[in-house]
């Protein structure tokens, strides 16, 4: 009987599935932040997800969070951008390339879209302040496939008030309840940032 030419594989669901996404930073010290929001039209609820990585897909941190009720898809995406910037600041990143697959978020940030609600204008102002605190930022629109990891991550927190995060400083955290805190990972988030 001939030997089986196919390689032996071990398939397990006990470990994380890792997609390899190569990326070469523009300059040394740049990190990539991929973000997106997930909006459920039927329930008008949203969740956000973002992933921060270095070149060759070295993961620095990831974050997924249930946001709660929001009024629109635009508000969900703007909230995702705001949370991603807050996340990057807390991780101590100075040089950042931010990518998302919804270009209107970037257009809103630069003032190309002027007809927005007061809540979205408040998020935009907060984001602009956060952007000023980062030394160098590059915004980049990617297609949905290019932002697949963040899109999949944003869908995770389907249970109300569930938060998940990972950082090199600690393992996955999951908290349930209404405290909206990931101490010591992120610390308490302000109520104003919860759309």
From TrEMBL:
Where does the record place the RNase H type-1 domain? 35-155
- Pfam families in alphabetical order: RVT_3 (PF13456)
Transmembrane stretches, start-end: none
Region (Disordered) residue spans: 165-195
Q: Where is the composition biased (Polar residues)?
A: 165-176
Q: Which GO terms describe its molecular function?
A: nucleic acid binding; RNA-DNA hybrid ribonuclease activity
> Which Gene3D superfamilies does the record match to this protein?
Ribonuclease H-like superfamily/Ribonuclease H (3.30.420.10)
InterPro entries membership:
RNase_H-like (IPR053151), RNase_H-like_dom_plant (IPR044730), RNaseH-like_sf (IPR012337), RNaseH_domain (IPR002156), RNaseH_sf (IPR036397)
Which SUPFAM superfamilies does this chain map to? Answer: Ribonuclease H-like
Q: What is this protein called?
A: Uncharacterized protein LOC110767363
- Give the organism, scientific name: Prunus avium (Cherry)
């Amino acid at each position: 009987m001939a030997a089986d030419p196919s390689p032996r594989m071990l398939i397990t669901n006990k470990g994380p599935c890792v997609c390899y996404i190569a990326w070469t930073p523009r300059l040394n010290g740049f990190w990539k932040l991929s973000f997106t929001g997930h909006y459920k039209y039927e329930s008008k609820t949203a969740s956000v997800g973002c992933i921060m990585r270095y070149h060759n897909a070295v993961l620095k941190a990831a974050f997924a969070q249930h946001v709660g009720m929001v009024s629109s898809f635009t508000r969900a995406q703007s909230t995702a951008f705001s949370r991603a910037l807050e996340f990057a600041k807390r991780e101590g990143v100075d040089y950042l390339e931010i990518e998302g697959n919804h270009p209107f978020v970037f257009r809103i940030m630069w003032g190309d879209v002027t007809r927005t609600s007061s809540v979205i204008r408040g998020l935009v102002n907060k984001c602009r302040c956060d952007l000023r605190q980062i030394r160098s930022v590059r915004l980049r629109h990617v297609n949905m496939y290019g932002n697949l990891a963040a899109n999949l991550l944003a869908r995770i927190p389907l249970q109300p008030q569930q938060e998940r995060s990972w950082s090199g400083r600690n393992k996955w955290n999951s908290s349930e309840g209404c405290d909206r805190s990931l101490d010591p990972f992120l610390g308490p988030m302000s109520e104003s940032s919860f759309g």
